[in-house]
Specification:
419 residues, alpha/beta, Glucose Oxidase, domain 1, Rossmann fold, 2 domains, 11-stranded mixed β-sheet, 11 helices, disordered N terminus, binds glutamine
Length: 419
């Protein structure tokens, strides 16, 4: 009996708080001219979610996408692939492990590790009131958001946002916070005036300009030319741990630059924007494969290798963002649980083999949820790539073996070439 009363009481309290925080009960689409204050997430189709200021106060624009990771928000927020995207977290409470000096995925232009947050905005349901983690040596998440001027919103019904984006697709959005934001239709017009993600050429905005070198851990075994299209910091670390000296090159890199470092292998990174715009990287990839240099690509790199092999890319309705996305490896039939963050995909079908200017290729991996292409490779094994993130943490490490495969490939290439 007492238990029932308590349950009812708890339910009632939650309901009241949620109503205060979210403005629940108002229609999602508001009347023109309705004045807004505090914080709102406005979608391009006119859907409005009212909440509270979180992080920096102000205005931010980007594509609204959702991420289903239950952990690892620091890795997500600092991943340069999220440039110009407003991330909606499906995990109901965010921030309880604070901010630490180890998990950031961004680098300064000269390659030194950086804490830079790349998302355009962050939309969450409930901020943690306490930070409780032994690694949280950089304070709280919200402090970081404020310090870096990242505008967020809390107290919104993130489940409702996700359902909307799942049904209608990722779309342009804005977070606006402050005391008097003006009429809601004015905010919607601001949202609609920003460029769309389709056709956005963004890698240059996050790539290194000058390039840098990450030294190998232990004995150097390979020289690797890695094109930084928005590369997560842990990728060169994974390569360095396998004896690679990683020569990180800007997104504008040329074949001459790749050859100048004496590359045993070529790596194409993840990165933001529409892969259909990455013509320079596609041309470079064709040149590299033509020279017989072994290559490996991750995410944006997979889309670019696919394009170099003659495939096209398309924009997915809402993409894959999270840490528990199952991928089938066609070579073994095994499923890896993977970490992902992409809104575009390569055209192709499970089991497909196709001709390319470099010989036969195939779709090597597919997503077990929706059958989309998750990897491609040349049948001779000299070029391969995956749409997911084998370097990722948080999330499982099921796919780390792909870095070893790249090492084996470079070994074979070196023996064959006598280098
Ligand atoms: N993480 C990535 O490399 C993302 C690739 C590309 N920008 C996409 O959204 O599909």
């Amino acid at each position: 009996m007492a238990g029932r009363v308590q349950r009812r009481g708890r339910g009632a309290r939650t309901g009241r708080n949620a109503k205060e925080r979210t403005g629940a009960g108002r229609p999602g689409f508001e009347q023109e001219g309705t004045e807004v204050s505090d914080a709102v997430l406005v979608l391009e189709d006119g859907k409005v979610f009212r909440g509270s200021t979180y992080g920096a106060q102000g205005q931010t624009l980007g594509e609204a996408v959702f991420c289903t990771g239950m952990t690892g928000y620091q890795e997500t927020l600092t991943d340069p692939s999220y440039h110009r995207q407003i991330v909606v977290a499906t995990a109901p409470q965010i921030g309880n492990t604070g901010w630490n000096s180890q998990d950031s995925e961004s680098r300064a232009d000269d390659g030194t590790p950086a804490d830079r947050i790349h998302v355009a905005g962050y939309a969450i349901r409930e901020p943690s009131r306490t930070v409780f983690n032994w690694r949280a040596d950089r304070g709280s998440l919200e402090d970081q958001l404020v310090r870096q001027g990242i505008v967020g919103i809390s107290g919104i019904d993130t489940r409702a946002v996700v359902r909307h984006l799942r049904d209608r697709g990722a779309m342009r959005a804005g977070i606006f916070s402050g005391t008097s934001l003006g009429p809601v239709d004015g905010l919607q017009r601001i949202v609609q005036a920003q460029p769309a993600m389709l056709g956005a050429d963004l890698a240059r905005e996050v790539s290194t300009d000058s390039g840098y070198i990450i030294e190998p851990a232990g004995e150097p075994r390979f020289e690797v030319a890695a094109v930084d299209l928005g590369m997560k910091a842990s990728i060169p670390e994974q390569l360095a741990a396998r004896g690679c000296r990683v020569h990180v090159l800007p997104s504008t890199a040329t074949l001459e630059q790749v050859e100048a470092v004496g590359a045993h292998g070529f790596f194409l990174s993840n990165g933001p924007g529409d892969p259909a715009t990455a013509d320079t990287a596609v041309q470079l990839t064709r040149g590299v494969i033509g020279k017989g240099i072994p290559m490996f690509g991750i995410c944006f790199g997979n889309q670019i290798l696919g394009r170099a092999l003659g495939r096209r890319t398309y924009k997915m309705r809402f993409g894959h963002r999270g840490m528990n996305i199952p991928v089938i490896d066609e070579a073994t039939g095994r499923v890896a649980i993977t970490s992902q963050n992409h809104g575009f995909a390569l055209e192709g079908e499970r089991g497909e083999e196709f001709d390319t200017p470099f010989g036969r290729a195939r779709v090597s991996h597919v997503c077990a949820n929706d059958g989309t292409v998750e990897g491609v490779e040349l049948l001779d094994g000299t070029a391969f790539s995956v749409q997911y993130h084998p370097e990722a943490a948080a999330g499982p490490h099921d796919a780390r073996y792909l870095f070893d495969r790249f090492g084996d490939l470079m070994d074979r290439g070196r023996k064959a070439g006598g280098k």
